[in-house]
Amino acid sequence: MPYNLKKILFYSIFTLFTLIIFFLNNGVFPFWGELTTYPNSLIEIIIKWVNVNLQIFKEDTVTFTTKNNDTAFNYLKIILFTIIAILSAFILNFVKPSISYDKLKLFLIELVSIYLTLNLVFYGFSKLLKIQFPSPDLYTLTQTYGSSSPMHLAWTFLGYSDGYNYFMGIIEIASIFILFKSTRALGVLISLCCTSNIMFINYCFDLPVKIISSILFIMTLFLFFIDYERYWKFFIKGKSLREIPESFISNNNTNYTIHLDKIKFAIFLPSLIFCIINLFNYKNQLLNQPPKPREYGIYYVEYVVYSDSFCMQHCYNNASWSQIIIESENLTIIKYCNDSVTFNITQWDRENQTITYSDLYDSYSENQFSYAFYNDTKLKLKGKLNGINTQFFLTRKIIPSFRLTSRKFHWINEHSYYF
To answer: pLDDT, tens digit, for every residue of 352-374?
Structure first.
């Protein structure tokens, strides 16, 4: 038969997954970005040409240098890879590669297993170390639900509980069972739960990592359907393990699979060690941050004096400050009465008691104030704001007074604590 649909589908999947792992490796393979600089540049040139000529996206909306995953450029990559995969599948069906279909299938299973496991283990350790979802900072604690983005809401929920982070991390690391033949079925089921949950969180809370989470989920489905008959007989038909035949992988104990195993762990172990070392280095950087300044805290504006004579309540207009949050020695967040926010690089001159705010995203916006503290609870700022002589009188909030951070775990709850 000239068209073997089963083989054409497999060759499509094989080519697509290989291209994705090569060009969208998500940083799981050490130095891969440096090694694929020229191929990535070629892909970038092709996609630019295709987009300009076909006008798929507006040219000024396609970003090539960003850390976000869900960019127009990456969607164009996936479209291009899918077209290449379909075309190559028909070619391979007629050409009949020298490597047998079963060997290619075994190779793809192991390649997907390495990629999937490295990603999930990486995310698992980032949760155990509380890197991916940090505890709510002062800015988060003062932000209302209504002014929060869906992503920030999800990040706050997931970052609040250390225990839940440890639970998620352990489950994701358990995906390592995929790499061993005797525990592959367990690893696939665990990964299916992990990747589906991650994907739906990303979709439902509009997190900008929908592409990679969808890829991981689809790859897990691929591993699941390789041995779907075994799952069907065990979970649906209630067959005993003795009545269920060995999996496709376990039944192929040839020299080829033995070599594949050796290559698999030769790639996986160094990559895993490299990822873990990077995570611990980053964690150490976070732990070695400069200590919080003594001015650290949240300050609410009580009232404002303009031009030495004009006194108004702090929210007399939308452009007025409502709150300043001193997060660290170098960062101050200013909230306005219209719920807008500016993030400011902060420079302290404690000898002369002056403070300078420079908008992180507007280098031309800079304001300098003299400051004075009273009883560690009152702060006065005096200077020029947008060319007008201005004095702010602020009151410091006691940090432990937040219900979210002060509420502890309770085994017994006579009434729901829903506030």
So the answer is: 999 999 998 887 788 889 999 88
Token representation of residue 173: 């690391």
For residues 7-20, one letter each, b for 16 or more C-beta atoms within 10 angstroms of the residue's C-beta and e for the rest, the string is: beebbbbbbbbbbb
Instruction: Report which of 235, 116, 119 is spatially closest to residue 184, judged by C-alpha positions.
Output: 116
- Paired residues of 301 in beta bridges: 394
User: In this predicted structure, what is the pLDDT of residue 355?
Assistant: 92
Q: Which residue would you say has higher pLDDT here, 125 or 377?
A: 125
Which contacts qualify for 293-297: CB closer than 8 Å, 24 or more apart?
Answer: 293/326, 293/328, 293/329, 293/348, 295/326, 295/348, 295/373, 295/379, 296/326, 296/327, 296/328, 297/138, 297/325, 297/326, 297/396, 297/397, 297/399
CA–centroid distance for 257 within its chain: 34
Q: For residues 206 and 374, give the distance between their C-alpha atoms in angstroms, rounded to a whole number.
A: 44
Helix residue spans in 227-254 (DSSP H): 228-231
Say what the pTM is. 0.87
In terms of C-beta density within 10 A (0-12 exposed, 13-18 middle, 19 or more buried), how is residue 271 classed?
buried
Phi-psi region for residue 307, left (φ > 0), alpha (ψ -120 to 50) or beta? Answer: left
The C-alpha atoms of residue 369 and residue 360 are separated, in whole angstroms, by 17
- In DSSP terms, 366 is beta-bridged to 358
Give the residue among 344, 284, 293, 347 at the shortest CA–CA distance from 139. Answer: 344
Q: Check pLDDT > 90 for residue 177.
A: yes
